[in-house]
């Protein structure tokens, strides 16, 4: 019996079928899903860079300005609280009236000290 080549033996065997590459429809769906995901991601990045980022930067500048204003108002509030405490003190009121308005307490004798120039 002559020996058959391996190609001929494969062709003669009934249980071995030639393989045909068949694309499965779910692979096409997966590829389409990845493309759609990339498109959505690209849109999100472009939207962030063109719309959201400038708004965020503007809000950061506004936040810094408001923090500076808050700091100034806190300083002013502290000063005004101290001033209220001073104005509630009778000795400070007396000194302020004397220095700014020339008022004296009854019984005091006003006098002015003149600088002598030689």
Structure report:
- Residues 56-83 form a coiled coil.
- Keywords: Cell cycle, Cell division, Coiled coil, Membrane, Transmembrane, Transmembrane helix.
- The chain crosses the membrane at residues 29-48.
- InterPro entries: FtsL/DivIC (IPR007060).
- The chain has 118 residues and is mainly α.
- It has a domain at 22-101.
- The protein has three helices and no strands.
Summarize the structure.
It holds the Pfam family DivIC. The protein is an all-alpha fold.
Question: How would you summarize the topology of this molecule?
Answer:
Layout: H1 6-12, H2 25-87, H3 90-101
Protein name: Cell division protein FtsB
Coiled coil: 56-83
Transmembrane segments: 29-48
How many DSSP helices? Answer: 3
| Sequence of secondary-structure elements | HHH
Radius of gyration: 47 Å
**Unreliable sequence segments:** none
Shape: rod-shaped
Strand fraction: under 5%
Helix/strand class: mainly alpha
Number of strands: 0
Distance from N terminus to C terminus (CA atoms, Å) equals 150 Å
Main β-sheet, in a few words? none
The percentage helix is 55-70%
Mean pLDDT: 84
Organism: Alicyclobacillus tolerans
Protein name: Cell division protein FtsB
Keywords: Cell cycle, Cell division, Coiled coil, Membrane, Transmembrane, Transmembrane helix
InterPro entries: FtsL/DivIC (IPR007060)
């Amino acid at each position: 019996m002559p020996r058959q080549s391996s190609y001929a033996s494969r062709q003669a065997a009934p249980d071995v079928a030639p393989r045909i590459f068949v694309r499965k429809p779910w692979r096409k769906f997966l590829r389409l899903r990845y493309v759609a995901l990339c498109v959505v991601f690209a849109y999100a990045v472009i939207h962030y860079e063109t719309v959201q980022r400038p708004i965020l930067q503007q809000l950061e500048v506004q936040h810094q300005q408001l923090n500076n204003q808050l700091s100034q108002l806190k300083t002013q509030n502290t000063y005004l609280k101290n001033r209220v405490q001073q104005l509630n003190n009778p000795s400070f009121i007396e000194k302020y009236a004397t220095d700014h308005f020339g008022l004296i307490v009854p019984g005091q004798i006003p006098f002015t000290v003149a600088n002598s120039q030689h």
